[in-house]
Amino acid sequence: MHSTGNLPTGLKIGLFLIVAGIASLFFFLDPEEQRLFPKCVFHSVTGYYCPGCGSQRAIYSLLHLNIPGVVSNNFLFLPGMIVVIYGVVLPAVNRKFGVNYPNFLYYKWTPLWILIIVILFAVLRNLPWYPFSLLAPGS
User: Fold this and answer.
1) pLDDT per residue over 63-110, tens digit each?
2) CA distance 82 to 86
3) For burial by CB atoms within 10 Å, which of 20, 46, 77, 106 has the most?
4) Residue 111: is the preceding peptide bond cis (ω within 30°)?
5) Residue 49 and residue 41: Cα distance in Å, rounded?
6) DSSP secondary-structure letter at 39?
7) Domain residues for 96?
8) Residues 11-55: pLDDT tens digits?
9) How far apart are CA 86 and CA 64, in angstroms?
10) Separation CA 69–CA 64 (nearest Å)
11) Cβ contacts of residue 74 below 8 Å, gap of 6+?
12) Has this prediction a pTM greater than 0.85?
């Protein structure tokens, strides 16, 4: 598995500029008010919320340090970000300090557990009853 430590400098700079550009868009443009941002196809077709529904508004809220807004738009967004950051930082720490901390993301059952959590979240956020209704975007 390649890490960003093995990427050429030009590619790292390019990736950084792309991420910074997208973050700038989300910082200055509210996805709820702009037509630039795509709507969820699954929700548009079915009327149900997918696990990612509300993520664009969650990014906007996060960039404005509005943590309650992040959680209300997509409850799984912050835990998902923590997992992604963990997956990027741990190999860098192992490489930098010459240690070999185990990465739970590579355990045999981790992908299955993540899939179960995501599917369960998708089902529960579409239930109309309290407290599950709190999982719907913008609740």
Assistant:
1) 999 999 999 999 999 999 999 999 999 999 999 999 999 999 999 999
2) 6
3) 77
4) no
5) 10
6) P
7) 4-135
8) 889 999 999 999 999 999 999 898 889 999 999 999 999 999 999
9) 22
10) 9
11) 52, 53, 54, 55, 57, 58, 137
12) no
